[in-house]
Amino acid sequence: MNRLLIAALAAFVFTQPAAAKVEPYPASFHVSDVKVDGAVIHVRVGGHGPAVLMLHGFGDTGDMWQPLALAMMGTRTVVVPDLRGMGLSSHPDTGYDKKTEARDIAQALDALKIGKVQLVSHDIGNMVGYAFAAQYPGRVTRWAAIDAPLPGIGDIWEQQLSNPKTWHFNFHGPDEERLVAGRERIYLDRFWNELGANPAAIDEQTRRHYAQLYARPHAIHDAFEQFVAFPQDGIDNRAFLAKGKLPMPILAVGAEKSYGTKMADDLRQVATDVTPAVVRNSGHWIMEEQPAQTVAIVKAFLDKP
Q1: What 3-state DSSP class applies to 81?
Q2: Which is it for strands 250-255 and 30-36: parallel, antiparallel or unpaired?
Q3: N or C: which end of the chain has fewer CB within 10 A?
Q4: Domains, the chain, ordered by start
Q5: What would the pLDDT profile of 146-201 be if each residue is shown by its tens digit?
Q6: Among residues 248, 243, 279, 245, which one has the least CA distance to residue 263?
């Protein structure tokens, strides 16, 4: 079987960009604010069947996954948290290393009485996802990881550290926070415009929605702390890898105008069963730029027996 078959099929069907605004989750979803060690995690849960866990990244919240949640809720219990310090979760002063954030997720799942999950992640969600899968490999049956490499692992990460587009990795501190305060929309526009293949696909309503969330008290500080933690994340990731590679099937999804097939190269460093897929005509913001194509690729992988 062609290892790019999923991507090729989806690319044949869905190649044109289409703007996607942030839509509410169905009324059948219920929201919980789950207490974990040092934080409160805001979680949306809906549907029925085996669980699928969806982890967002920077510039988004769990709201990004609504189209995929709609596609999966008929056969899955869909679990969509906001990460610590992001969205409607609490904003503690510490705990932004991804090992700790993965423990947040494990404790939230325990509170919801959910054991094993399929995992879908994007951006910083990949980093939390790897820390979750490495610490709790028996809880993850499949993982679709989308368009961001893992800190501290291999050449792809090292190249990112010198990439001019990732200057934000080192943009943090009190003065940087003062620069962004009240200008959160301008700061986030830079990410959507420069890292997207089609910035127009990220419409005005979407930009306003996330800018308002990132303008909440402490939100930008905590978002910056995600990047501050990268050196520690690298240390933790190398320690995870030293214990062995992940055994579960992994779909490494790269955006054509972003990481592309490098996503598979990156994840093969930490896992034994990796299949590549590419979201065509998309930059980094796959759920905003190419939601239908992304949903088709991920759903086909998750629906495999």
Answers
A1: strand
A2: unpaired
A3: C
A4: 5-302 (3.40.50.1820)
A5: 999 999 999 999 999 999 999 999 999 999 999 999 999 999 999 999 999 999 99
A6: 279
